UniProtKB/TrEMBL annotation:
Organism: Polaribacter atrinae
Source organism, top-level taxon: Bacteria
InterPro entries: 6-PGluconate_DH-like_C_sf, DUF2520, NAD(P)-bd_dom_sf, TM1727-like_C_sf
DUF2520 domain sequence ranges: 104-227
Record's protein name: DUF2520 domain-containing protein
Length: 232
């Protein structure tokens, strides 16, 4: 059995704790990052806290292998005195939305072979997609993830706002959203790009801009220009 200590009680820690409780090879304990006076020993300590808190929290832990779960922070952010690593799951985690860890990519980093093998075992106890990714590669992945997830979700929000303002149901767009997401499994995003920006339909673009508020216009024009530059 592998003992795992989870530090944190946010979305990532909550989902990990639930998954580890179902794993036959893992014994898991969870504590709050605000309660670090009596820290249980463990084979692996996973700090699942905000990026800004990683250094402070890790500096208070003396367990033999301490890892963080951040995509945007390097392994050097850890300030514990013993072995370090990263246990990054490239997925969006929300409370109340179950996660299938078999579909989640685990991007792992350690400073030695034995620790890497331990991280692999722990990840394989709840998932299947395991990758060895260093800090620079993970940083690039995290930036890419912000574009395809966080920024895309904000565009969903804008689309929803437009639908609400004009009294049409946002759900009408769900099949289009699903088709766009599934299409890039078979086509490159560049080849999958459609719409008035690619076609340079000036009349349609103007009609769209006339419908939007100032903030939406700015985003629309920026994305239109970026799309047109990418296909020229």
């Amino acid at each position: 059995m592998i003992s795992v200590l989870l530090v944190g009680n946010g979305n990532v820690a909550t989902h990990l704790h639930t998954a580890f409780l179902k794993a036959d090879t893992i014994v898991v304990t969870q504590i709050s990052s605000r309660n670090l006076k009596n820290i249980p020993s463990a084979d692996l300590t996973i700090i699942a806290v905000s990026d800004d808190a990683i250094a402070e929290v890790s500096s208070k832990i003396n367990n033999k292998l301490v890892v963080h779960t951040s995509g945007g922070c390097s392994i050097s952010e850890l300030k514990n005195e013993n072995n370090k690593g990263v246990f990054y799951m490239l997925q969006t985690f929300s409370k109340g939305k179950e996660v299938n860890f078999c579909e989640v990519p685990f991007c792992l980093e350690a400073t030695n072979k034995n620790d890497q093998q331990l991280l692999d075992k722990v990840a394989k106890s709840i998932g299947e997609k395991i990758y060895e990714v260093d800090s620079e590669q993970r940083k690039a992945l995290h930036v890419a993830a912000v574009f395809v997830n966080n920024f895309t979700n904000h565009l969903y929000k804008i689309g929803n706002d437009i639908c609400t303002e004009h009294k049409v149901p946002f759900e009408v767009l769900f099949p289009l959203i699903k088709e766009t997401a599934s299409k890039i499994e078979f086509l490159s995003p560049k080849k999958a790009q459609t719409g008035p920006a690619v076609r340079k339909d000036k009349k349609t673009i103007k009609n769209h801009l006339d419908l939007l508020d100032e903030n939406q216009q700015e985003i629309y024009q920026l994305l239109t220009k970026s799309i047109q530059n990418s296909v020229d």
